[in-house]
Automatic annotation (TrEMBL):
<dbReference type="Pfam" id="PF08545">
    <property type="entry name" value="ACP_syn_III"/>
</dbReference>
<dbReference type="GO" id="GO:0004315">
    <property type="term" value="F:3-oxoacyl-[acyl-carrier-protein] synthase activity"/>
</dbReference>
<keyword id="KW-0963">Cytoplasm</keyword>
<dbReference type="Pfam" id="PF08541">
    <property type="entry name" value="ACP_syn_III_C"/>
</dbReference>
<keyword id="KW-0443">Lipid metabolism</keyword>
<feature type="domain" description="Beta-ketoacyl-[acyl-carrier-protein] synthase III N-terminal">
    <location>
        <begin position="109"/>
        <end position="187"/>
    </location>
</feature>
<feature type="region of interest" description="ACP-binding">
    <location>
        <begin position="256"/>
        <end position="260"/>
    </location>
</feature>
<dbReference type="InterPro" id="IPR004655">
    <property type="entry name" value="FabH"/>
</dbReference>
<dbReference type="GO" id="GO:0044550">
    <property type="term" value="P:secondary metabolite biosynthetic process"/>
</dbReference>
<keyword id="KW-0444">Lipid biosynthesis</keyword>
<keyword id="KW-0275">Fatty acid biosynthesis</keyword>
<comment type="similarity">
    <text>Belongs to the thiolase-like superfamily. FabH family.</text>
</comment>
<feature type="domain" description="Beta-ketoacyl-[acyl-carrier-protein] synthase III C-terminal">
    <location>
        <begin position="239"/>
        <end position="328"/>
    </location>
</feature>
<keyword id="KW-0276">Fatty acid metabolism</keyword>
<dbReference type="GO" id="GO:0006633">
    <property type="term" value="P:fatty acid biosynthetic process"/>
</dbReference>
<comment type="pathway">
    <text>Lipid metabolism; fatty acid biosynthesis.</text>
</comment>
<dbReference type="GO" id="GO:0033818">
    <property type="term" value="F:beta-ketoacyl-acyl-carrier-protein synthase III activity"/>
</dbReference>
Length: 328
């Protein structure tokens, strides 16, 4: 079978207008700006308007990615939305987005791999294009984490925000595009980061609401240790598979969970901070949307050029992780 080189041919992002600052959080829980900045690097996050749901954020990001790729929605063969905050159980957010976009020829499904979801989505889509099954696939990471955040829990509420990032994948000239993917999971660590309520194990009930089971629970310290180990491991494994040396990385686009986690990955890869896309001070952690928002912003800021070697790396609930090396 002939494999076609596959790459990103358009990027787009959307973040809601409303800003939640550290000062705002000081009025909601017992915390302070200094603690949040030194422990996480975060200063602000965006919060969706009451009438906005995940598919609305995804729509705005997707429209921009399609325009950048110079494609119409009708030219899409498939839409994948990576999210842990779908508009509803079903139909999938991808189907809702397909309808909003008028992408009537596209198949559509959601993918659940928490903060690693966007990289899982890229791996899935790029293989479908490489084998000739599809030509153009839209991959979106979109979240309304504010809807599953407990704003009385200072351990979690300072971290999360809302937003969406999108890319269009298609074939690219030889020598460019995705060089490797490294995906992994450790379901044994699932209880460290989860939302229990509302599923088939614990259907929604007055008790589940009372017990705050519909909000994110996170064992922050344990997740932190896992993150520090896995970011370096996953990135190094993706580099090894791609045959790219870490000194040749032009840009690292990591999941935006904590500045200290990103710094540990930079140390491990011997990379200076200038070679890393960091925007968590503006948006916090947007789970599956963090990496595509950061990538779209890197493109907007002219930080990626043809031929650059880019490493994407993320980790999250599941536990899951993913990394990819691509040539722009
Ligand atoms: O994408 C999803 C993956 N999630 C993550 O990557 C999160 C990974 N974890 C982290 O980023 C960090 O563990 C946190 C930022 C969540 C917490 O930072 P930490 O340095 O691990 O702090 P800690 O949990 O060890 O807490 C230290 C202290 C505690 O007080 P005591 O018990 O030492 O008296 C906490 O109660 O800080 C306290 N604390 C706070 N203080 C002020 C926890 N949250 C806050 C807060 N403001 N918001």
């Amino acid at each position: 079978m002939m494999l076609h080189p596959v790459g990103i041919i358009g990027t787009g992002k959307y973040v809601p207008e409303r800003i939640l600052t550290n000062k705002d959080l000081e009025r909601m829980v017992e915390t302070n700006d200094e603690w949040i900045v030194t422990r996480t690097g975060m200063r602000e996050r965006r919060i969706a308007a009451p009438e906005q749901a995940t598919s609305d954020l995804a729509y705005h990001a997707a429209v921009k990615a399609l325009a950048a790729a110079e494609l119409t929605a009708e030219e899409l063969d498939l839409i994948i939305v990576a999210t842990i905050t779908p508009d509803m159980f079903f139909p999938s957010t991808a189907c809702l987005l397909q309808d909003k976009l008028g992408a009537r020829k596209a198949a559509a499904f959601d993918l659940s791999a928490a903060c690693s979801g966007f990289i899982y989505g890229l791996a899935t889509a790029s293989n479908m294009i490489a084998t000739g099954m599809y030509k153009h696939v839209l991959v979106v990471g979109a979240e309304c984490l504010s809807r599953i955040t407990d704003y009385t829990d200072r351990n979690t509420c300072i971290l999360f925000g809302d937003g969406a990032g999108a890319v269009v994948l298609g074939t690219v000239p030889e020598g460019r595009g995705f060089r490797s993917f490294e995906l992994g999971a450790d379901g044994g660590g699932g209880e460290l980061l989860r939302v229990c309520g509302g599923g088939s194990r614990m259907p929604s009930s007055a008790e589940s609401v009372e017990g705050k089971q519909h909000f994110i629970y996170m064992a922050g310290n344990e997740v932190y240790k896992f993150a520090v180990r896995i970011m370096g491991n996953a990135a190094e494994e993706a580099l090894r598979k791609a045959g790219v040396d870490k000194k040749d990385i032009d840009l690292l686009v990591p999941h935006q969970a904590n500045i200290r986690i990103i710094q540990s990955a930079l140390n491990r890869l011997d990379l200076p901070e200038e070679k890393c896309m960091i925007n968590l001070h503006k948006y916090g952690n947007v789970s599956a949307a963090s990496i595509p928002i950061a990538l779209a912003e890197a493109v907007e800021q002219n930080r990626v050029h043809e031929g650059d070697r880019i490493v994407l790396v993320g980790f999250g609930g599941g536990l899951t992780w993913g990394a990819s090396v691509l040539v722009w």
